Amino acid sequence: MRFIRSIALGILILSLMLISKTGAIEVTKVEINPEILLPGDVADCKITLYATTDEKISLISFDSDLEINPKLVLGIGEISRGSSYELPITIKAKKAGTYKVEMTIVGNTTKKQIFNVVVLDKYPSIILKKTKIMLNEVNEIGITVESYIDIRKIKIQPLFEAEPSALYSESSTIDGSFKFLAKEAKPLKFRISFYNGRNYHEIVQTVNVDYKESKGVFVYPEANYSVLAIGDVTPITLKLTNLREDTIYRIVATATSDSYREVKELAILEPKQTAILTYRFSPSKAGENEITFSITFDDDLGNSYSISKRITVRALDEKAVGISNLEVERELDGGLKVTGDITNGGRSDVSDVVIEVVAGNDTKDFFVGKLESGDFYTFEFRINAEKGVVRVLWSNGIGQKFELERPFEAKINAVKVESKEGFPYAVIAAVVVIAFIAIAVINAWKKRNR
Questions:
Q1: Structural domain of residue 204, as residue ranges?
Q2: Of 212, 228, 252, which residue is a domain's last?
Q3: Are 302 and 328 contained in the same domain?
Q4: Residues 94-97: contacts with CB under 8 Å, at least 24 apart
Q5: Contact yes or no for 311/289 (Cβ under 8 A)
Q6: Which residues cross the membrane (predicted)?
Q7: What number is the average pLDDT over the span 86-112?
């Protein structure tokens, strides 16, 4: 770019050097603005004449393939010795090339001056600093302009939806960037407008880029336990990895099932960054329980996206807490002693455990509190009734409440005999000794009668 402008300036200087400096009038300077023209441009040219002696100029004419106005200048008159005269003209170019302008000065003597004008058919071009574009992502591309001419008041407009809608520069350089969502693979078009001198230009340029498919957001839900009892709780981890090249915002991850809904949120997830969210799920029915994870997020331009993943947790047809080893014994006073175990067979702890025994109008309860996974609690109640119900109530790790009950009834002859003086071990021992003696006597008698 600078090289071509230097060539144009060199051509102009060489043209001036070729002029004979003999005589009373000399051309000391030819200024062309702009220095290099585009086809159709008009240049403002200022020619400086210097008189070494008093000189009377009758006319100046121009001969060229360019349009020069005026081509003939009359009535300049006398230029005093040591004085200068500036002659303004305009030059219009129609097509590219290097043009010769021959200037004839008629004064006391006739002299010719030749200078050249360069017209290029090379318009400014847009240069992208990034040519790899990701589909369905927000791409930020840096942009600048390369020009062989000295342009001003540059404006670049993308002919597609982007932010900002245009870039501006008053100087000869421009450096900025655009953000846009690449929805389809097609060349990018830009409108570039600028001034070359006082000449306004507007062109449309197409830039080919390399499109790549977005890798999106990786979503991986995993339950710690795939088989549970009803009411048991399993943690579920949701891994989110942003494989995109852009940042995503306002991430909302919602887990839903038949009677379950849990929402987690993230403000931002940078490219290649991973976030792990933890949920707690409890199946409400036996069989297959499907959990759907719905993820929504926005890109930098406010466009919304959604992804969904599903996993299945199987629930056994039983509850996490059970009643086992239930026994009923009748006391000597006619009442019943009810014993048994409350067992947490689930994989998570339970809390607020309460045991109740209900028999008619008689109700007794006991607060157990927390029962860890795999733990049990042995209970014992005495009631005055023939039958009743043992009921256990509890809350799981996510606050859901459950209950389970088992009926009981006194068995016939289920009487436990007790002595206030203790168990008669001595009496039983005496009976056993007498029995052994009797057997020995009988065996001796039999041997004697043989």
A1: 125-212
A2: 212
A3: no
A4: 94/39, 94/40, 94/66, 94/67, 95/39, 95/119, 95/121, 96/39, 96/120, 96/121
A5: no
A6: 423-445
A7: 93
**Confidence check: pLDDT of 366 > 70:** yes
Residue 140 tokens read as 């930020």
**Is the bond leading into 70 cis (omega within 30 degrees of zero)?**
yes
Q: What is the pLDDT of residues 408-447, one digit of tens each?
A: 988 754 444 333 333 343 333 344 334 444 554 455 544 4
Q: Which of 386, 391, 384, 383 is nearest to 414 (CA)?
A: 386
Whether residues 410 and 350 share a domain: the answer is yes
CATH number, domain of 111, equals 2.60.40.10
Looking at the structure, do residues 403 and 376 belong to the same domain, yes or no?
yes
Q: Each residue of 338-347: pLDDT tens digit?
A: 999 999 999 9
pLDDT for 442: 53
Q: Residues 106, 184: one domain?
A: no
- What is the tally of structural domains in the chain? 4
Burial degree of 212 (CB within 10 A; 0-12, 13-18, 19+) = middle
Under a CB-based contact definition with an 8 Å cutoff, are residues 120 and 32 in contact? no
- Domain check: are 155 and 230 in the same one? no
Query: Which H or E run includes 383?
Result: strand 376-383
**Cβ neighbour number for residue 69 with a 10 Å cutoff:** 11
- In angstroms, the CA 434 to CA 436 distance is 5
